[in-house]
Amino acid sequence: MPKIERMRYLFSMLVLSLLFISCGGDTAQNKLDLMKYGMPITIAAPEGSEIVSEDLGFMKDITVKSGDNYFIQILAGAAIKLDPVKIKEEKLAEVKNGPFFSKIIKEDDHGFVFEKKIDEQNINYDFRHIRIQGDKEYVFQTGLIGRFTQADVEKMYESVK
User: Fold this and answer.
1) Domain span at residue 99?
2) pTM here?
3) Residue 17 — φ and ψ, nearest 5°?
4) Please, is 119 exposed, middle or buried when counting C-beta atoms within 10 Å of its C-beta (0-12, 13-18, 19+)?
5) Per-residue pLDDT averaged across 50-54, rounded?
6) What CA–CA distance (Å, rounded) separates 64 from 160?
């Protein structure tokens, strides 16, 4: 094989290897459109996620779960306020008043990631993210069952933004 072709081949293999490494892992995120479940929302979720939708009359509840480290709950209802920043502040106050609240890990205008600590051996992480679309309020959080690391929760948080 001539030298230039060999260099092209090696360069191509290097690029392909880098692509496989950067896209690898069991939590590859895909765009998941929840419209068929009654929510005009798209999130990034692992391929093959299990989706459960419940219509509670006054509110819609959708959970998206994949394995033990990705479990998101989305609550949708009529927006009483149309300012997501103010709603986030209310949710933040609620969380801070909770018995196991420990600290805020990360915060922006529309949400936050926080730590819950029962004791030194029982630390869990959670988040809230607020979105307003039309006259609907969407609150994203971790699923109600499970223990999540800070990295798990930060990844879930980013997947709903």
Assistant:
1) 28-160
2) 0.81
3) -60, -45
4) exposed
5) 97
6) 11
